[in-house]
Amino acid sequence: MLGVIAITLLTITPKTMAFIIADDFNDGSIHPSWQVTEQSGSSYVTEEGGYLRLGGGSGVTGRITLQHTATVDMEESVWIDYDWIQCTDHKARWGIGVFDQWLNTGMYISLVPNNFGASEHWVGIFTYQDGVSNAVYSAEPWPLEGRLQIIRDDSQLVPQYWSNDQNDWVNFDIDPFNADFNNNDAYVFMHSSNSDYNPEWEIALDNFSVPEPATMGLLALGGLFLRKRK
Ligand SMILES: [Ca+2]
Ligand SMILES: [Ca+2]
């Protein structure tokens, strides 16, 4: 009998994915961990239809920033699914970042579905140290829906995206960024805004997740294995 129980546990455990935070945005009320720290124009945030929706109306420039009050420990990752619902013209943006304070020290992945002029479906990764920014990576075109991740490993921040083709996380093509947090806590931020032409815009977000570090380690090992095989 004991033997049967032991085998059952062994079979189940490796398939279980454990999360410190897992928000599916399904119950229609925004979890109090999400604090709106900046809001202007007609920008809004709602939890509706199973998604957290960030956006704003036309005719006025708007900005909205959310801070997740739970800190990101030394070895954790955060990920989220994004889906651009509406952005018909120049130009709106959304991004997710890990910072001590918004745009002070940390990393930010930003997506722009439409841009004025030549660029289209642009992604940029910005790193900041003590308020000084660098655009270290940009690329286009980029999918209008997908999954992004930022891994924190001590001071190192690694941005990744989920590849359906590879069925795994893939590093963006930049060097890992060493953020000196001066022993300050790090937080997850999300930001969305529009400018200039002021179209209506909305992005739907889902499955905000902070996996247990042990799970994260397995995922990271999987990523290493993939890179070695190339
Ligand atoms: Ca909720
Ligand atoms: Ca959902």
**How would a crystallographer describe the biggest sheet?**
9 strands, antiparallel
Distance between the termini: 46 Å
CATH architecture classification name: Sandwich
Beta fraction of the residues? over 45%
Number of separate structural domains: 1
Helix content: 10-25%
Mean pLDDT: 84
How many DSSP E strands?
Answer: 16
Overall radius of gyration: 19 Å
The total count of helices amounts to 2
CATH class: Mainly Beta
**What fold name goes in the CATH topology slot?**
Jelly Rolls
Bound small molecules, deduplicated? calcium ion
**Overall form:** globular
Structural class determined from secondary elements: mainly beta
Low-pLDDT parts are 1-15, 221-230
SSE pattern, N- to C-terminal:
HEEEEEEEEEEEEEEEEH
Could you list some keywords that capture this structure?
230 residues; mainly beta; Jelly Rolls; nine-stranded antiparallel sheet; seven-stranded antiparallel sheet; 2 helices; 16 strands; 53% strand; globular; disordered N terminus; disordered C terminus; binds calcium ion
Question: Quick summary of this structure?
Answer:
This protein is mostly beta strands.
Explain what the structure shows.
With 230 residues, the chain is mainly β. The chain has one domain (19-229): Jelly Rolls. The chain is built from 2 helices and 16 strands. The chain has helices spanning 2-12, 213-229, and strands at 19-23, 34-40, 44-48, 51-56, 63-71, 75-87, 92-99, 106-114, 120-129, 132-139, 145-153, 156-163, 168-171, 177-178, 187-194, 201-211. The strands form 2 sheets. Strands 1, 3, 4, 6, 11, 12, 13, 14 and 16 form a 9-stranded antiparallel β-sheet that branches. Strand 8 and strand 9 form a beta hairpin. The N and C termini lie far apart (46 Å). The model is unreliable at 1-15 and 221-230 (pLDDT under 50). One calcium ion is lined by residues 24-26, 50-51, 206.
